[in-house]
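Q: Predict the assembly, please.
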Amino acid sequence: MSGRVNLLVPEVRANPYPTYAELRRSSVCQVDPGGYWVLTRHDDVVAAFKNPQVFSSIGMRVVTKPAWLGHNPFADSMIGMDPPNHTRLRTLVNRAFGPPVLARLEPRIRAFAGAIVDRIPEGTPVDFVDAFCLPLPASVIGELIGLDPTQHHLFKRWADDLTSITSIGPSPGQETARMAEIRATVKETEQYMGRVLASRRAEPRDDVVTDLINARVDGESLSDAELMNFMFLLLVAGLETTIHLMSHSLRLLMEHPDVLERLRKDTSRIPRFLEEVLRYEPPVQAIMRVTTTDTEIRGVTIPKGSPVALMMGAANRDESHFPGAETFDMDREGTNNLPFGHGVHFCLGAPLARLETRLGLEALLTRFARFTPAGPMEWNRSMTVRGPVKMPVVAHAR
Ligand code: HEM
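A: Predicted assembly structure:
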């Protein structure tokens, strides 16, 4: 490729896949903003995920705690650690996300989904991010970490700010005001989460925060700072990602009316449809690592200490792994877990994300027959997650 690609310019943001195809064809290179080295072929991405000795998760910490921010509990959470530090924390939080927790949550999620869908007006344009994609995951995260359900928009703003840290390059120039906003968000979120933790210590409840406070493995528990870091991690990892899975699902249903018709006739096909949405439009497009040593890939040496983006968005369209990769085909065989990462950091919330999106779509397709776009979509700005910030849609009754 000639010149460095900028992955956040609006035309690439609106449709990054032709650029990813070029990147896959060319040798390993750097992109803007941030000068990340990008791995775009499926085999390279999986190999890097499997090799934390060379592709360290300290990369997640480095990119989410730049010097201008200084403090960010998300960056200090286990997502930015390598084994053995990561292993200890993952063991402590694992049980709080097991099958019994999902079973406990399922009826609540179904009730949330029904109530949210009932509030969507028919035959008139609404922003579906606001009306559907945000409220369901926000209600679920609220249930998990004890957030006040009337404050959904606040949590979305916090999660948006925390995921947009990666869109501010190393020479930020004009972006001083945005930096100040993000610093204020970190402080505000920390104060709020601090109050939630204090209230659960005073009055334990049957919820995940209480389970985390009480978690013990070999006599070890989570420190106050580790609890705070994990709450930040859940907010960022569990909200923005699932909102985008919902919005990509709806957009693909509008683009493929035949698929919508099949799902309406047989909702048991929704899980299969979601697997193809996750492949075709992965909400997490890239995960960051940093190299611990000089490493050679396809004849190019990536120097020690370089930020590297493992581009799942590109790997999921790699023809050598997915024949006909540029075609949305819900009859594609097999489960592709790469959208949820790979190896020791594999997404803790993957079953929950699949469950809430399935229940949300079931409720939506039970009430509405079809959906039509009602205006242009606006895309978010982040190197890691991709999805619309606005999605005007008209829902038509059955
Ligand atoms: C469609 C929705 C989701 C997608 C695409 C997604 C994707 C991912 C990916 C790619 C990773 C790997 C990060 C890495 O290797 O550095 C990850 C980790 C994680 N995810 Fe998710 N996620 C989703 C939903 C959720 C939900 C709903 C939760 C919880 C409420 C969650 C919690 C986590 C946590 C705690 C980690 C860190 C695991 C670790 O560091 O060991 N995610 N997710």
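Residues 57, 60, 78-79, 90, 144, 233-234, 237-238, 241-242, 245, 283-284, 287, 339-341, 345, 347-349, 352-353 surround protoporphyrin IX containing FE (CB under 6 Å). The chain has one domain: 10-392.
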